[in-house]
Amino acid sequence: MAYTVLGGNVSPFVRKVRVFLIEKEIDYEHQPVNPFAPPEGFRKVSPLGLIPAFRHDEQIVNDSTVICRYLERLHPKPTLIPTDPALEAQALWLETYMGSFTRVTGPRIFRNLVLNPLMTGSEPDEAAAQEVIDGELPEFYDYLEETLGGAEFFVDGRFSIADIAVASSFVNLRHAGVAPDAARWPRFAAFVKRMHARPSFAALIEEETPVFGKRAALLEA
Fold first, then answer.
1. Taking the complete model, does pTM exceed 0.85, yes or no?
2. C-alpha–C-alpha distance, residues 95 and 13, integer Å
């Protein structure tokens, strides 16, 4: 039984699947794929050209949410997707919510501060990123702070796919030197730090930092 995750390691969605596999203690291979310059024939694996794609022997599965549910059915322990319908719906909603979050932060913060400078040698577009950080992120932070409340985890007081989905997107902001203000959003800021300190996340952050995470030092200044 061979598992392969196809996709660039800095993608929040690829990272989500890899953390899921690590938390399940499932061995897998990671095959880097740049969706902007994919290998020949990649569309036969991923019809939309998106990452991650997932190969299980001869079976191909696409979309991070679908992949994680596929793995949960094959490896139900430890439980990372709630079995109760209402709790599963909460977790699925947070995955969907973080997809919207990533569609804002990816192209308008991470790309402006990290990817474009890395790929083109240009200066980071601090002004464009700051406009989003100041104008749009607080609404997301408010919602996540309120939804988390005083709990350690987002759904049913237990670590789940919801926590993985939330924390994965915040790795990219960490690489960009951006984090929620702990004075304004103390519970959520503490959550992000706890999640990124988990061995599953910490290993991938360490892998990515030499290339993508140079601005993370700004968070320690």
1. yes
2. 10
